Amino acid sequence: GSCKGGGVAATNKIYVRRSNNKSVNHYLLNPKNSPSEAMRMACSGVTRENEKKDRGYQSNQNHDGNRPSSASLLDINDDPHDLFRRFVANHARMFPTALAEINEGYKRSCWLWFVLPSAPFVVDSVERGSARNRHFALRGDEAVVAYLGCRSKYTYQLSEKEDDDYGLSDATPKVFRIISLHDNYIAIVSAIVRQLEKGNTMDELLGPMDVDKALSSFRLFGRVAGEVTGDAELAGLCQRALELVSSSAKEKTSKWAKKLHAW
């Protein structure tokens, strides 16, 4: 289930904040921070405690400061499920947006396929669905286990303008983020659960076209977490999401039944 060392090199230019010795990489370890936000935090003197308080950051115990544990990182040359190209790169680009949209109460961008992936859509033993649906499908429990075990380094290339704007210099490692697909899945489902507990519906959060795909993902990941990987936290979270959706659907049906009876 664990992934092995590696990463990608996007640039030879390296950056650090001059004044407080906290690199941009430190803030990129938090998946909620975009590259621009990470640079702003590195250059503003924000403290680690304030970052935890303001952004809900929980440090990964496998890291020592901003240095990743290479033994647990995905080797992109040994990636049979194509996790880096299909998921890691897309998470690096879109996951902060996805999480922000759910926290705001409704999805506006296209990210569900790779943030809440599911099994292939099969009808009469034939795989159906759109080309994008087929591209991001996880085929078999082994693929889901690999997805949940995947941590990867993603390296960003900063522009000269960003270098000038933030007063950065070439003194420390390349700017990278550690992407954990497991942690991101926990984060997005937790955010959905919080919204459902507030009384929002899946239709309101994701739009009616994406609800079935999300529920399929909850069922798949909940089953694999419970029966294969023994991840009680993830299994319980998926079950909680499904229970809230079911409860909301029953309540909606009950309201319509009462209206029809009154009519």
Describe the structure in your own words.
The protein has helices at 24-28, 35-44, 48-55, 83-104, 112-115, 131-136, 141-148, 160-166, 181-197, 202-206, 208-229, 232-262, and strands at 16-17, 122-123, 126-127, 151-155, 168-169, 176-180. It has 263 residues and is mostly helical. A hairpin with a 2-residue loop joins β2 and β3 (126-127). Residues 1-21, 47-71, 162-173 and 253-263 have low confidence and may be disordered. It is built from twelve helices and six strands. The chain is globular, with a radius of gyration of 20 Å. The longest helix has 31 residues, at 232-262. The strands form three sheets. It has a two-stranded antiparallel ribbon with strand order 1-5. A two-stranded antiparallel sheet has the order 2-3. A two-stranded antiparallel ribbon has the order 4-6.
